[in-house]
Amino acid sequence: MRDDDHFLWWRGHGADRPRDGRWTGIGEEAFQEDERRITGRHRLPGPVPDWAEDLFRVARAAFLADKYVRRAGTRDRWTRRIRLSVPVTEHERWRNDAVRADLTGLLQTLTGDLWQVEFRPLTGHRVEEAMTFPGDPRASEVALLSGGLDSVSWAATRSRAADPRPLLLVMYREVGLLRLQRRVYESVERLGGERPLMLLPMSQTPKNDGSGLRLETSSRTRGLLYAAGAIRAATAHGAATVHVPENGQLAVNPPLTAARSAACSTRSVHPWTLARLNALIAAVGEGSGPVRVVNPWARLTKGEVCAAGRAAGLTPADLEATLSCGKPPARRRGGPPLANCGVCFPCLVRRSGLLHVNGTDGTPYEASPWARGLAHERGADWRALQRWLLGRYDLTDLVTDTPLPPDADPAATFDVIRRGREELARLLEVAEAAGIAGAAVPTGAARAPQAAGAADVA
């Protein structure tokens, strides 16, 4: 134990309290929403198995720890040492060494921190049973619907599937962006596919911890929390697959600079992350892998995902009304009511995808990355992207940052990044045409971003 370790204890039921003064208690009351709205159990058609409830509780505890332990107070202003104690019903399964390794490996990959997680038996276990009725529809497939381009394109595509059973879309509601998320869902409804759609809205907003300090701004465990909520819903419906749609470019999310390696860039849908999560589900679940989490867009670029959305019937306006931003202006106090800032890396990838499929992008952004007078810090992602596109990227770069799982195809994954670089190079052309690209982009270089060829991959 070190003096910079942080101890967080998720409280169980009844008289369950931290065993000594080192531990800070956290629990259901740490969220702004009513527990009923968080769990959504009253909206589920069947019971949730104990292992799925345990996984959801672990994900919630990790999410709170991620928000309550500030990176600014650490020695390197990033890496934290977090010890977490969580009560679970399937106690013996969670104590297994393989389970611990999968979970800590998953958390460390996501956040870049050092985690120790211990489990204790959940006492006073009480469950609010679902209100089920004969004939309640059961979804055959579950997918996250964030309000982004990737998730709406997948929802539109699957709404056209020849399946009489419903498609369940799990949506975690974003403060300040509820209207946008609802509009995105309605764009799928308007397609009029024969397949029924079901929407499960969930919320998970942490309260302040009472210190008076701002909560940690990075939130690398958010994706795990969302996935755990969808997994939980899938078990109640008897669905075997949870889709977490993310284009292959941002799923791998290659760092644009050495300073953005590992968890400094989000890895919530990276192939390695999903492999660890599926291994964890198989270890704690009933049987070998009762639910599997899959990224259906792993082999497509942003532009190719947008093209799939158009092919499913979405209009350019539908795509432009979505959310892609890593730091939406609408989340900021006093910020403009816009969904996309236009200058962060996810917004840059979004711009390239819409240009690829529509030839234009009418999204109302807060700012342009190549605009004169843009604050220096706001142009950091654009400058990093220019340097990355004008440099070399090969298979070694792909696997050095975060490894691929053993069953992955490195050549296919690399090819997604290569095609994505070609799409992103269009942004260099746009900036060059505007005459304001800056010294980092020599004339004509925008048309030839360097990348390894097929021989390098083989």
| Separation, N- and C-terminal Cα atoms | 46 Å
Percentage of residues assigned to helices: 25-40%
Low-confidence segments, given as residue ranges, are: 437-458
Total strands: the figure is 9
Indicate the proportion of strand residues: 5-15%
| Rg (C-alpha, Å) | 22 Å
The chain-level mean pLDDT equals 88
In which order are the strands of the major sheet placed? 7-6-5-8-9
Could you say which overall geometry the principal axes of the C-alpha atoms support? globular
Largest sheet: 5 strands, parallel
**Element order, helices and strands?**
EEHHEHHEEHEHEHEHHEHHHHHHH
| Structural class based on helices, strands and sheet pairing | alpha/beta
Count of runs of 4 or more consecutive helical residues: 16
Description:
The structure is a single chain. The chain has 16 helices and nine strands. It is an alpha/beta fold and 458 residues long. It has a five-stranded parallel sheet with strand order 7-6-5-8-9, sandwiched between helices. Strands 2-1-3-4 form a four-stranded parallel sheet, covered by helices on one side. Mean pLDDT is 88; it is low at 437-458.
Q: Which characteristics define this entry?
A:
458 residues; alpha/beta; five-stranded parallel sheet; 39% helix; globular; disordered C terminus
Draw up the topology in text.
Layout: E1 5-10, E2 23-26, H1 35-39, H2 50-68, E3 81-88, H3 91-94, H4 97-111, E4 114-121, E5 141-144, H5 149-159, E6 167-172, H6 178-189, E7 197-202, H7 222-237, E8 241-243, H8 248-252, H9 271-284, E9 292-294, H10 302-311, H11 316-320, H12 345-358, H13 380-390, H14 395-401, H15 410-434, H16 454-457
Parallel strand pairs: 1-2, 1-3, 3-4, 5-6, 5-8, 6-7, 8-9
